[in-house]
Write a structure and sequence with these properties.
Chain B: Keywords: Cytoplasm, Exosome, Nucleus, RNA-binding, rRNA processing. Chain B: Belongs to the RRP40 family. The complex is a heterodimer of chains A (215) and B (250). With 215 residues, chain A is of the alpha+beta class. Chain A has one domain: 2-Layer Sandwich (Ribosomal Protein S5, domain 2), CATH 3.30.230. Chain A contains four helices and nine strands. In chain A, helix 1 (69-85) packs across helix 2 (109-124). The longest helix of chain A is centred in the last third of the chain and has 32 residues, at 183-214. Chain A starts with 10 loop residues before the first strand and ends with a helix. Chain B folds into three domains: 3-23 and 44-76, OB fold (Dihydrolipoamide Acetyltransferase, E2P) (Beta Barrel), CATH 2.40.50.100; 88-165, OB fold (Dihydrolipoamide Acetyltransferase, E2P), CATH 2.40.50; 171-248, 2-Layer Sandwich (Ribosomal Protein S8, Chain: A, domain 1), CATH 3.30.1370.10. Chain B has helices spanning 6-9, 177-184, 190-197, 217-229, 235-249; strands spanning 3-5, 13-14, 19-21, 45-46, 50-53, 56-59, 63-68, 72-76, 89-98, 101-105, 112-115, 135-142, 150-152, 164-165, 171-174, 200-204, 209-214. In chain B, the strands form four sheets. A five-stranded mixed β-barrel of chain B has the order 9-10-11-13-12. In chain B, a hairpin with a 3-residue loop joins strand 7 (63-68) and strand 8. In chain B, helix 3 (190-197) packs parallel to helix 5. The radius of gyration of chain B is 22 Å and the shape is flat. Classes of the chains: A alpha+beta (215), B alpha+beta (250). Chains A and B meet through strand 3 and helix 4 of A and loops of B.
């Protein structure tokens, strides 16, 4: 382990594993796993269509039971992140639906959902101005930052921050947080997340290269 | 890698957000009678997956960057959902008949409309015999993001040229858009090789739908399975598989 714990857990991905959706992907981070199905650009009800851009919908399905307030909140965060990178104006009056199924939750769930959504969107071939990835940071009482924490590290930490970072300028698209932290600690977390995002984007590129080399 | 020269990226993987810098060579100012032109914009054609971003190109899809002379660039991606493009030949399913137009499902985000007059020999008195559920092979005459797509089963001279309602029997299968493009490349002889083994009729739509009809139902199914299998076979593997069948039939 490095001093700041700036290592991500083992991560992996698979694309086009479902036959019915237009794009699908599953993303694994340690023991956390999320499956994404992307449908679009598809037909839409007249009441929900937007005349100059695509209507984006995100559905997050928990492992068991019905989606509750927490899931609805995360749905909204993911939707806003995706909306900022998808070029919806190229497919006006259509719907884009992203369904995320939690397969197992072992910490850093939101960042895993974001990564799965991005992989699913890429597989569906929807126009995007940049890629994005999710990185979760946990901070303990003595201020050490752990990237991509597991469930236990997340429970024991003082603050947990999740960032969505885009690929062109490493800007923060979305942030979700819990706990107390100072302004400098926030800056440290952003910096750590940006460094980690570099690795994830490199992984995305290698993954796509591997996939296209087969055909 | 976020900004690379477009020449270096040809044949390579590109991801959304990559910026492709056009070389100075293609930026040569066009000859102009009104003195030296102030704008030295490169003359480049952007295909699917590419957008202009000031003087450079922005990639918005992942896939392989392709190039064709003089300066046509596009991204070749593996996609399942079809987006209508003007001029594409597609196979549609008639879903409703309302007055003068048929609604046709082509697999896009919206149903295409098809006028009853857009068939060979059709007049106001002599309506074409099209029923709900029929398959039609037609061409897009209107397809853009802001309008309802419109199809026709005749060309500009009023000839069907192979288009129109597809016969009652036969089998329609859905395949990936990549396979359809592969089958339709002129120098690709998958279909020709298959025809040598099984005499058949085949219609290939750019929207990922293929209709086949061979002599018997059994042969039709074999052909359908072989076509589907072609997606991941190399030329040698394909020849090997096909040779097995040609021995059996003859």
């Amino acid at each position: 382990m490095e001093a700041v714990g700036s290592v991500l857990r083992e991560y992996g991905c698979e694309q086009s594993l479902l036959s019915r959706p237009d794009g699908s992907a599953t993303f694994l981070q340690g023991d956390t796993s999320v499956m994404a199905g992307v449908y679009g650009p598809a037909e839409i009800k007249v009441s929900r269509e937007i005349h100059n851009k695509a209507t984006l919908e995100v559905i997050l399905r928990p492992k068991t039971g019905l989606p509750a307030i927490q899931e609805k909140n995360q749905e909204q965060l993911i939707r806003e992140t995706c909306e900022s990178v998808i070029i919806g104006s190229l497919h006006p009056r259509t719907s884009i639906t992203i369904v995320l199924q939690i397969v197992s939750d072992a910490g850093s769930l939101l960042s895993c959902c974001l990564n799965a959504a991005c992989m699913g969107l890429m597989d569906a071939g929807l126009p995007m101005r940049a890629l994005f990835c999710g990185v979760t940071c946990a901070m303990d009482n003595d201020g050490t930052i752990t990237l991509d924490p597991n469930f236990r590290q997340q429970k024991e930490s003082r603050a947990v921050l999740t960032f969505a970072i885009e690929s062109t300028e490493r800007k923060v698209l979305m942030m979700s947080n819990r706990g107390v932290y100072s302004a400098t600690e926030l800056q440290q977390c952003i910096a750590a997340a940006q460094i980690a995002s570099e690795k994830l984007f490199q992984f995305y590129r290698d993954f796509i290269r591997r996939r296209y080399s087969k055909s | 890698m976020s900004a690379v020269s477009i020449e270096d990226a040809v044949g390579q993987i590109v991801l959304p957000g990559d910026v492709l810098v056009l070389s100075t060579q293609s930026r040569d100012a066009p000859l102009s009678l009104s003195g030296p032109s102030t704008s030295n914009r490169p003359r480049v054609v952007c295909g699917p997956g590419l957008m202009r971003q000031e003087d450079d190109l922005l990639v918005n899809k992942c896939g392989l960057l392709r190039h064709r002379d003089p300066a046509i660039y596009w991204v070749d991606s593996q996609q399942k959902r079809y987006v209508p493009v003007k001029g594409d030949h597609v196979i549609g399913i008639v879903t409703t008949k309302s007055g003068d137009i048929f609604k046709v499902d082509v697999g896009g985000s919206e149903q295409a409309s098809l006028s009853y007059l857009a068939f060979e020999g059709a007049t106001k008195k002599n309506r074409p015999n099209v029923k709900v559920g029929d398959l039609v092979y037609g061409q897009f005459i209107v397809a853009n993001k802001d309008m309802e797509p419109e199809m026709a089963c005749i060309d500009s001279s009023g000839k069907a040229n192979g288009k129109g309602v597809i016969g009652q029997d036969g089998l329609m299968l859905k395949v990936s858009l990549g396979l359809v493009r592969k089958l339709l490349i002129p120098q690709n002889d998958i279909v020709q090789e298959l025809m040598n083994i099984f005499p058949m009729e085949v219609v290939i739509g750019m929207n990922g739908r293929i209709w086949v009809k061979a002599k018997t139902v059994q042969q039709t199914l074999i052909v359908a399975n072989l076509l589907e299998a072609c997606e991941y076979l190399t030329a040698e593997q394909r020849k090997h598989v096909f040779s097995k069948f040609s021995d059996n039939v003859i």
